[in-house]
Specification:
Strand content: 15-25%
Number of helices: 7
Order of helices and strands: HHEEEEEHEEEHHEEHH
Structural class: alpha+beta
Helix content: 25-40%
Radius of gyration: 18 Å
Strand order of the largest sheet: 3-4-5-7-6
Distance between the termini: 30 Å
Largest sheet: 5 strands, antiparallel
CATH class of the largest domain: Mainly Alpha
Length: about 230
């Protein structure tokens, strides 16, 4: 993004989005609440620490705003600094604070999450899994620790695998979520679903997710995977 466009975007964002935005985080284990926002802005999604917005006039840009009192902005800014410009990740154009709102201006990633691909019966090519593997290896080469990489945090975009959420890539504790997803892909998806894809009901997906969480946090399942509540 050129400097003039970025400066204009920041000015508009401060005068509109950040002037009216009200975020509330009641429980760090649940998504934050967007209590108020300008009508001309659109909500892309809400996580446990931040929400993401875009303006229809600049649909290729996203603004991630952290809820008051929630940590993570400085860490995520550092992760994007290390990632730099890589096709499998977003790019951070600017990070700042205004009226108590800590925000990141990012290149908007558009695609379909692997989770939604399974829900809708859309084929997930093996090359997409390989793309994400290579992207995570790149992150490691930059001194980062891929964390919280699961089906809702990776996408297929134009036939390529991309990583959406890198906010926890400074956490050094082991995380097996991506390895576990690949095992499910190789042992279940490839032999049974890849050739004759069918839509999987969301209640089935939620049951699998809850079962996975229980196994990982039970005494028998160990504690290799963290951040499942995000």
């Amino acid at each position: 993004m050129d400097k003039q466009r970025l400066e204009s975007y920041i000015d508009q964002m401060k005068r509109t989005l950040l002037a009216e935005l009200k975020l509330e985080s009641v429980d760090p284990g649940n998504p934050i609440h967007v209590k108020a926002m300008p009508k001309e802005w659109k909500l892309l999604g809400a996580g446990n620490y931040a929400s993401v917005f875009y303006h229809p006039d600049d649909a290729d840009i996203a603004v991630k705003v952290y809820a008051p009192g929630r940590e993570g902005w400085e860490s995520e800014r550092e992760v994007y600094r290390r990632i730099g410009d890589h096709p499998a990740y977003s790019t951070c154009y600017h990070a700042g604070e205004h009226n108590g709102h800590y925000y990141l201006i990012l290149r908007r990633l558009q695609g379909k999450t692997l989770y939604n691909c399974v829900l809708e019966g859309v084929t997930i090519p093996k090359s997409v899994i390989d793309d994400i593997d290579q992207a995570l290896d790149y992150a490691r080469s930059q001194g980062l620790f891929p964390h919280d990489v699961h089906g809702k945090n990776v996408m297929v975009a134009n036939g390529k695998g991309i990583v959406v959420d890198i906010s926890d890539f400074l956490k050094e504790e082991p995380c097996a979520m991506w390895d576990d997803l690949k095992k499910a892909y190789n042992r279940i998806y490839m032999p049974f679903l890849s050739k004759h894809t069918v839509a999987i009901p969301e209640w089935v997906m939620n049951s699998v997710r809850k079962g996975y969480r229980w196994v990982k946090h039970s005494p028998l399942g160990g504690r290799s995977s963290q951040g499942m509540s995000k």
